[in-house]
Amino acid sequence: RALLRHAAMAVNLPRAAFSHMAQWRGVRVLNLDVTGTMLFHRDPVAEVYCRCAASCGSKPPSVDAMMPAFKAAFKSCLERWPCYGHSEGLSSQQWWKNCVGTAFDEAGARYSDAEFNRVFRAIYQHYGCPEAYKVYDDVVPFLEWASQHYCLGIVSNNCDRLPDNLLPALGLHKYFSFFVVSREVGVEKPHAEIFRTARREASIRLGEAIEPHQVLHLGDNDAVDYAGARAAGHHAALVERHGVVQYQSWLDPPHYEGSGQEEHIVVWSLDEIRRRLERSTAKP
What we know:
The protein is built from 13 helices and eight strands. The protein has helices at 2-9, 13-23, 45-55, 63-80, 82-85, 92-106, 113-126, 139-146, 161-170, 182-185, 192-206, 222-231, 270-281; strands spanning 29-32, 39-41, 133-135, 151-156, 178-181, 215-219, 235-239, 266-267. The strands form two sheets. Strands 5-4-1-6-7-8 form a six-stranded parallel β-sheet. Helix 2 packs across helix 13 (270-281) and helix 3 crosses helix 7. The model is unreliable at 1-18 (pLDDT under 50).
């Protein structure tokens, strides 16, 4: 799908790219998504869940059963307790405990409370370790360059463990000036409010009001990242990574002026974003 779309867009790419590069000239803030854009899970979630259950002495469901079970559980729990339990006052850990328990139930595994607590702890500890993730090779070089020229921020549909634990454990937090996650804000992408919150954070960091057209958002989800940012008045680029699993594929893109005709800017690496930004600021 991505290859076909990229090939189809390439017919008019030079003109479209030139237009967007000219518009990017005034960009001062770069917002980045995290999972699927900067990093990915080293092992599929279903495999990790089953492996952790087995390591605790419990009989795991099959990986084939866990794969759809997790996707269904993740969606149902976000619908029941949006933004990782923000309004209900759930801790991030409790939200994930509910989600993991639902996933095992959906996969046909039945554990006692004590047994499940052991399994959940193993899973929660796994995803609290940097070894559970792989940072894309182009990320650190890009962040080292971009942080010298732009105000960088995280805008993610995620819980507070991301900015407080995971990014520091991976050594990525030092490149960013602000962190906006749906668990803390109470709204998630593609809602415009989470982008407005990020813009306010950038304005505080820079000491002056940042306008929507001064922001470029980078993410891997068409509806959530690209359309969400464009509807908020930002520039956007879709970073398409090979083999990325979309965890919120059920979300619909918001409408924005020109959404039906606008050619998306699609790149396969952050190196291409750097080249485009450098060209946008180059003197004629």
